[in-house]
Amino acid sequence: TAEARAKELKNYPNDCLVQLSNPNIVTMKEDVLYDFSLSTSTLEFPAMFGDVKFVSVLGSHSRMNSFIKYVAVELAFGHPGMSTPTSVYDCPHAMYKVGPVLSMSHGMGIPSIAIMLHELIKLLYHARCSKVTIVHISTSGIGLESGSVVINWQAVGACLKVEFQQLVLEKWVVQSTDLDEQLVPELLQCSADLSEFTTVVGHTMCTLDFYEGQGHLDGVLCFYTEKDKQAYLKAAHTSGISNIKMESSVFAAMCNTCGL
Ligand code: R2B
């Protein structure tokens, strides 16, 4: 099962290569990453991406662009506006690479980020990357002072369960949404060292929709009241949820299963 596979991968040494849970890939002569417009038969993935150690995924192209420019300056890879960071290929999910840092934009919602993650994780696998850390960076937050940072240690579905459920060939498949427990204190320490903003550790709730799914009152449809919305958000907050993202559960499930 996916859960057994995730457990097995967790026992691998730290310097393990990126693993896939799909026996078909190894038998394929060519793997085409359709959305990235990349193919293993025309490009040398290990030469292009083999040095990647950190991957950041962000919703919008512009936020990702700001992030990677910041990384370029921090890592002394040149100034923003110079030839690095460069967009590698034209694709719906823009991709930038600066030294060991790869950054991808994922669009909105589970379907969009899931397609991107299938191709991104295969790219890391074909490139024989090892010791990769992948981080999802995004905005939002509930019950927090604005500007606070939430480090998510478990993603939660809209029913407040710590799991990701997906229909696969008519069957519901449930996957774990635990995130890397070693990375949480490391990131918390980074934030303490910076001492620039409040940082909390919490759950991130994943909803299937922005308007009704998150109780917004200004969509086309609204069959609940402000009171109902507040009660839902309060219950979520009381159960440890610190923010809402429409991608968090599938991100956690896929990375977990691939030992990332
Ligand atoms: C928050 O913002 C987007 C919707 O506006 C979506 O990606 C999310 O989770």
TrEMBL record:
It is an enzyme of class 2 (transferase). It catalyses: uridine + phosphate = alpha-D-ribose 1-phosphate + uracil. The keyword Transferase applies. It comes from the Eukaryota. Its EC number is 2.4.2.3. One of its GO terms (biological process) is uridine catabolic process. Pathway: Pyrimidine metabolism; UMP biosynthesis via salvage pathway; uracil from uridine (phosphorylase route): step 1/1. One of its GO terms (molecular function) is uridine phosphorylase activity. Transmembrane segments: none annotated. Residues 58-259 form the Nucleoside phosphorylase domain. Keywords: Glycosyltransferase, Transferase. GO terms for cellular component: cytosol. Belongs to the PNP/UDP phosphorylase family. Catalyzes the reversible phosphorylytic cleavage of uridine to uracil and ribose-1-phosphate which can then be utilized as carbon and energy sources or in the rescue of pyrimidine bases for nucleotide synthesis. Shows broad substrate specificity and can also accept deoxyuridine and other analogous compounds. This is Uridine phosphorylase. The gene is LOC109696415. The chain holds residues 131 to 390 of 390 of the full protein.
